[in-house]
Amino acid sequence: MLFFSFFKTLVDHEVTVELKNDLSIRGTLKSVDQFLNIKLDDIMVLEEAKYPHLAAVRNVFIRGSVVRYVHLPSGAVDTALLEDATRREASNAAAAKGR
Amino acid sequence: MEGDPPSLPPQMFTTSAQLLDLTDKKLLVALRDGRKLIGVLRSWDQYANLVLQSTIERLYVGDAYCDIPRGVFIVRGENVLLLGEIDLDREDDIPFRRASVEEVFAAQRATDTEKKRADKVHRKKLRALGFEDEGEVLV
């Protein structure tokens, strides 16, 4: 659940989602769920000419399974905190196993 | 604990919350095979399996598009790329020309033939350079 929590901290930030079919969409992250499905608002499509069907679309729901990358604003990511959280999650999992 | 699937509090299942406010709206659904469906979202579940009503399939070729009426769709979630809410104000001033199905089909065929021809040339050149032929690429 770490990445789910992590993405929740990025809500209302501008992100770019690159799909496995090479389509890139930039927009404001509105919500994310446990499958890392993503909702974006005020979208802008990179290479708009190649994807005419998105011309009249303002917000999208992207299925998590088709996402290749999410480009994040580096200022919004606390890498040290993320590292700590990873170690904590790993040790919690180890403790749960040993119980 | 061991072996049991982890139990999650129900509020974790937020896919439903995300799709709830799209219900009964006119949506664009892009599928993994490249199809674009436009219909009214009537039902869904946590896998993004969808029920669409009054669905049309929209084909784009060049600056033209056409609509084919398709009726009711149940889409299996794994085939869904994205759902887009259509901005009804912007819907009518997209820079595309509505054409007849026949015209778009003919244009599509012409584009496909041209692409096949270009691919053939491309493959011939690669072969001349010693690259293994991967055969005709299916789209």
Structural features, described:
The complex is a heterodimer of chains A (99) and B (139). Chain A is of the alpha+beta class. Chain A has a single domain, classed as SH3 type barrels. Helices cover 28% and strands 34% of the residues of chain A. Chain A has 2 helices and 5 strands. Chain A has helices spanning 2-9, 79-98; strands at 14-19, 24-32, 38-45, 57-62, 67-71. Chain A has a 5-stranded antiparallel β-sheet with strand order 4-3-2-1-5. In chain A, a hairpin with a 5-residue loop joins strand 2 (24-32) and strand 3. The model of chain A has no long low-confidence stretch (mean pLDDT 92). With 139 residues, chain B is of the alpha+beta class. Chain B folds into 2 domains: 1-98, SH3 type barrels (Roll); 100-131. Chain B has 2 helices and 6 strands, in the order H-E-E-E-E-E-E-H. Chain B has helices spanning 15-20, 101-128, and strands at 26-31, 36-44, 50-61, 64-75, 80-86, 97-98. Chain B has a 6-stranded mixed β-sheet with strand order 5-1-2-3-4-6. In chain B, a hairpin with a 4-residue loop joins strand 1 and strand 2. The mean pLDDT of chain B is 86. The A-B interface holds A 1, 19, 21, 23, 25, 31-35, 37, 39, 43, 52-63, 65-66, 96-97, 99 and B 1-2, 8, 12-15, 17-19, 22, 28, 30, 32, 34, 36, 46, 48, 58, 60, 65, 77-78, 80-87, 90-91, 94-96. Strand 4 (57-62) of chain A pairs antiparallel with strand 5 of chain B. Chain B: It holds the Pfam family LSM. Chain B: Belongs to the snRNP Sm proteins family.
CATH architecture of chain A: Roll
Identify the overall geometry of chain B.
Answer: extended
Count of strand segments of chain A: 5
Biggest sheet architecture of chain B: 6 strands, mixed
- What helical percentage do the residues of chain A reach? 25-40%
Number of structurally distinct domains of chain B: 2
Briefly note the CATH topology name of chain A. Answer: SH3 type barrels
Mean pLDDT of chain A: 92
SSE ordering of chain A: HEEEEEH
